[in-house]
Amino acid sequence: xxxxxxxxxxxxHDESIWAxxxxxxxxxxPALLLTGSLDETVRLWRPDELTPVAPPSKGHALGVVSVAAxxxxxxxxxxxxxxFIRVFDIDSNASxxxxxxxxxxxxSMQFDPKGTILAVAGGGSASVKLWDTSSWQLVxxxxxxxxxSARPDKTGSGKFVLxxxxxxxxxxxxxxxxxxxxxxFDVARSKFLHHLDGHYMPVRSMVFSPVDPRVLFTxxxxxxxxxxxxxxxxxxxxxxxxxxxxxxxxASLDGAAIATGSSDRTVxxxxxxxxxxxxxxxxxxxxxxxxxxRPPGGTGLRVGRLASVSDDKSISLxxxx
Length: 321
Fold this sequence. Notes:
This is WD repeat-containing protein. Keywords: Repeat, WD repeat. WD repeats lie at residues 10-45, 57-98, 154-195, 239-280. The chain is mainly β. The chain is 0% helix and 49% strand. It has strands at residues 3-9, 17-23, 32-37, 42-45, 64-69, 75-80, 84-89, 95-100, 109-111, 117-121, 127-132, 138-143, 161-166, 172-177, 182-186, 191-196, 203-208, 215-220, 224-229, 234-240, 246-251, 257-262, 267-271, 276-281, 288-293, 304-310, 315-320. The protein has a four-stranded antiparallel sheet with strand order 1-27-26-25, with no helix packed on it. The chain has a four-stranded antiparallel sheet with strand order 5-6-7-8, with no helix packed on it. A hairpin with a 4-residue loop joins strand 14 (172-177) and strand 15 (182-186). It is globular and about 50 Å long. The termini are close together. The model has no long low-confidence stretch (mean pLDDT 92).
């Protein structure tokens, strides 16, 4: 397995780019790349040329910290430091809904595999918010209990929820917090199941394996990437190689590799059979805030593709094979 640098775009936004996601292909068009920036805009990019599909999409009053695409490829959402989530139509850019939360209660977010629920890491609310995508109403708030052994984090409330991930079967939801604790929920029953231990610093990103709903990967400021059995509550492996905070993690579609982005300015590709980094990409000159593998679908796709975005305002695209 390897990454091959395909294309980079400098000054893709006017400020740092903190978020990237792939919009799945539809019958009418290929997959698109979606980016969100501290310049308060969201942009859509063509997947090969990395040319903009349309002018930057405005609609936030502060920087965009997370973007998520609906599995249908028709709808996306962007969350901002202004405490609003904007839901919009991909092709027309028309706003569909605006979801409001109190200050500092909107961080990363992800649609469930069926596209019926948008899960939002609730920041200082110490919870995960679930929004129904048919009505755009808040249907559930899952409070994150503190582990008995927990030390209070810097927010003083004991929990600041930064990241969320759905299992590929949509049955479980995991979230990561500022103090390093990870909580796992049974969504159908709105029930907290257990914590996963091992990190003691902010867990900024997480992803389940696309081929095994038990396996969860987490990226942490402690410079490590953890691999958990999310059902068995056990730490399966700890992978080290970055020299600073690990800000983002995503899994390849074949489940054989993960990619990470770090504040050490690198993107790493990890072979899960060896549980080690097999490649380091140095395209970026500043912190790499987000990495994302292209989803399945579309015609003529022979190889996988990975995108990364950075504080250096650039987007990089890689072939994965």
